Amino acid sequence: MRILAFFLLLTATSALAAPDRLTPDRLTQAAALRDTALAKSEAWPLLESLTTNVGQRLAATPAEARGRDWAVKAMAAAGLVNIRTEAFPMPLWERGTETAEITGAAPQRLAIAALGFSGATPADGITAPIVYFADYAALQEAPPASLNGKIAFIDHRMMRTQDGSSYGVNGVVRRVGPALAASKGAVAVLIRSLGTDYHRNPHTGSTTWPEGQAPIPAAALSLPDAEQLARRAKAGPVSLHLVLTPRFNPNGQSANVSAEIPGTGPEIIVIGGHLDSWDLATGTIDDGAGVAITLAAAKAIKDSGIKPRRTIRLVFWGAEEEGIWGGRAYGEAHKAEPIVLAAESDFGADRIYRLSSNVADTGLPLIAEIQRVLAPLGIAATRNNSAGGDGDVAPLIANGTGTINFEQDGSRYFDYHHTPDDTLDKVDRTQLDQNVAAWAAAIWLAASDDRALRKK
Q1: Domains held by the chain: number
Q2: Structural contact between residues 26 and 306, judged by C-beta atoms closer than 8 angstroms
Q3: What is the mean pLDDT of residues 390-406?
Q4: What domain range is 124 assigned to?
Q5: Fewer Cβ in 10 A, N or C end of the chain?
Q6: Cα 158–chain centre separation
Q7: Whole-number pLDDT of residue 362
Q8: 305: left (phi over 0), alpha (psi -120 to 50) or beta
């Protein structure tokens, strides 16, 4: 009996002395959060409310401000505290009239959308010959001044991939292609949309201009129209009449919105999505879904009544679409805080199929625990420890903060991305809830832990 009593005492003493992370309680709590969210999370009603009652949320406009008002109320309703709105300056760009028509004996209207920060044509438009480039490399090879007085049309071949990698490969066409064409004398630029659908829905998105370069008109063609124009250009000379009348104001303003579940210690975990969207639809998959997923995950943790060690801070960034304005402003304003982990949901609402990370070596056992709890959701093990993180958290990661990526199936994401088709009916509620289940479980495990996660 003495030996048994001694053994029981030793076991009890060891359990009391051990850090919380060595007990099974955290895994049990995470599994409960996972299963509750998987059965039915709050993400769908949140997403429905945002996209129905607010709609599109173009950066620096009153529409984006209405989104922030919605966010403040939704965060408070979820029981989060320390709600803050942090404004930052940025330029305002708004879409105007946009039409394109092949001229000549066989005229044809084309479906286009101006690119963010496109320059404008005169009100009555311009007419000029088209010069076709099969890809960005072909444009690079064009001699200086060879496009004087002409409209450059830049083609490419973006493929459907699960991880969205083809978007990164071809993104240069939109992001810097117009500026390169302008430097060679082009009066306007058309690009094949960065998309994988074959509807006559052009995909918008931002383009950039070097300091001192005046923006020229720049627009994206829907895929069927891009292929039609390519055929016409290859058959012989073709001219186009183009009207783009966007408006630009350098003195705009956006803001980030944040709220917290306070922890018992000083360290902070940042999660969230970007609140702004393009103006062609309701911004459902980009990025209303990310907003709803992370808010629903935070609410699930809050509703459970369990107290985290690390503060969980939910951030809805402004003005991501037009150049990560909110993410950069947030990273600068909060660079001195002990933010140990940051993650953003910004790839739609389809299922998570894999987890990746970028944390200090001391945090890898935590990543293994997260993977253990997420495995029943069909989420594969982390492939490496060098994940890059989404755009708004990139400034935090550059400052040493660790990150985890919830890698979603992007097979159909670029059918709708930045198009008039980015609407609520595209979301599968079961897959949406799988996202919330993964986020709630993983973030709880990270917030209840104390192992070092920062890379520097």
Answers
A1: 2
A2: no
A3: 96
A4: 96-245
A5: N
A6: 19
A7: 97
A8: left
